[in-house]
Amino acid sequence: MKLAYTMAPGRGDTDFVLERLAADLAARGLRCCGTVQINSERPDAGPCDMDVRVLPDGAVLRISQDLGPQARGCRLDPAALETAVGLVATGLSAGADLLIVNKFGKHEAEGRGFRDVIAEAVAMDIPVLVGLNALNRPAFESFAEGLAIQLPPDPAALMAWVEDVTTKVDEPV
Which residues fall within 8 angstroms of residue 170, CB to CB, at 6 or more apart? Predict the structure, then answer.
């Protein structure tokens, strides 16, 4: 199984690393499918707006809701997330060299979100790289059944893993 995850320590760092990796891979001609998250700071100093870009060059969707300055709950817009999931599932069925999922989050931990897309990619032998945070790590490890490897949030290390798992083995003549 070609399933890996990465975790960066700072807020938004994993998003930045995966977005950069996806751009570098696209420049190399790899067909990446999935999502990368783009966080936009807000001028009113509230929580950032969260958008995902559907890979390779699809829509940018706002996945956060503005719940007001006093809100403390989850700001994820579940309908927007499911729209992104549908677009990625369609893209995956068209073929890909790699699936990148910006985050295995609460929805995935609860059996929704990108969970089925990740499983489908694994079943299709398409390598999968997932962003992860400590809160959802136990659920991800249970989902992956101990078969996922952790990669450092280092661009060179991530690129080396992608190159390793996407290298086509030539058939003997």
Answer: none
